[in-house]
Amino acid sequence: MMTTFTKYILFCGLISFASTACHAQNIHSDVKVPEVKAGEPLPSDLFIQLAKNVSPSVVNIYTETKPKMNFSEGMPDGFQMFFEQFFGGQGMPPGGPNRGYPPKPQPAQSLGTGFIIRSDGLILTNAHVVNGADVIKVILAGGEQEYQAKVIGADAQSDVALLKINAKKKLLAAKLGTSKTLQVGEWVAAFGNPYGHSNSVTKGIVSALGRDSGNLNLFPFIQTDASINPGNSGGPLVNVKGEVIGMNTAIDARAQGIGFAIPIDNVKLILAELEKTGEVQRGFLGVEMQGLDEQTAQSIGVPVSEGALIVNVLPGSSADKAGLKPYDVVVRIGDKKVVDPSDLFKAVASTPVGEVKDIEIYRNGKKSKLSATIGSKQKTLEISKNDDTAPDSNLGSIDLEKLGLKLGKNSNGGSLNFRFGSSGVLIEEVKPYSPAFNSGLKAGDVILEVNRSIVSSPSEVKKLLQPKNIFRIQRGDRIILLMI
Hints:
This protein is α+β, with helices and mostly antiparallel strands. 18% of the residues lie in helices and 32% in strands. It contains 11 helices and 29 strands. The protein has helices at residues 46-54, 77-88, 127-130, 264-277, 294-300, 318-322, 341-349, 377-385, 400-403, 435-439, 458-464, and strands at residues 9-11, 58-65, 108-118, 122-125, 135-139, 146-148, 150-155, 160-164, 175-176, 187-192, 200-211, 221-224, 236-238, 243-252, 259-263, 283-284, 287-290, 308-313, 329-333, 336-337, 356-363, 366-373, 375-376, 405-409, 425-430, 446-450, 453-454, 470-475, 478-483. A hairpin with a 2-residue loop joins strand 28 and strand 29. It is elongated and about 75 Å long.
């Protein structure tokens, strides 16, 4: 669920250029940033010294993604003639250099930033800067040479990636500070390559802390008004001591001077695991969920309108073993309140695998507590795929035509995704502006349950209908609850 705030947040490392290099200042290893004590005025040359001291560890990251095969290549002559005529009519002359075909796709190129964190060439950047790249090149300060980089590890949920280059020399590494002592109003400087303008430094203050990014990142952001733009992604945000306290990641597309950085303390928590295994093993509960509103809460008989509504539980998962069921509403996990599904997701993902968590839920109007041992996603999915058990069946009617529904037998049968079982009733048609249409039901949805009872035929659906109903449906690879 994306909030009004988060849908305007854009990652700031995806900008395309034909060719760009990063030309930074020469390394000044003897430069010392003057120490600034609280309450004292800033030295007039503070940011000059910061630029000299930090810039040598900042690198330009240049990526290239190879295009897929041109769909007209290798086609028989008849098809080539068709495309020639079609695209020729769109301003591409038949018989020209491309014989009227679409232009041959060019490699997609983009820029980002990173910074050296170890003298042997270990580089920190955003995962979205290198995601899907076929070629990754790193240009060091000075711009005299570029190096092929290898992705050592990447974690999409925190948007952190580690790269490695072999420079055959010791490199100057940035000093990692701490973000736990940051205060709103502190001076900071952002380094990077915005829009390909290499070796750029901007200054500003910490505007806010703990800024929730919704589903964009597992970690809350540092907000700063130091100018951040596309190409800055993965660059360091430093304090007045020249210590990295965050990694520039995103911007608010609606405004100027609203940028976001991942706190460096959160980044440091996963660096060792990323380097060792190439990924971060995160906690996994094994549930699908959606938000809760007052209408849904009333329909399922719970006295709250906040929480994570469970709509599916994977067989053999931590949630399954703990006793969680569809229609449960999770309101707390451990010491963290759950207001919406993102709260539950972040709390579980931040929990080490194997740790036990108390989970407070509402079920049938009553509050209760369960205990779950947090598992891992890979093992949970392996167990679920091998679990052939079907869910238990609980087998004044309402006219389906009045609801605007035309139902048919679910022809997918056992080919349905393993998470959902093979039962269900296919919605073949939804009459426009009918009660079913207005509730959000769509043709192609598969009804799994009506009023908490599993259904496998249109007659069962009709038998279970009441004046007010809750449908548990499969839509594509998701399960959702809808009221009608």
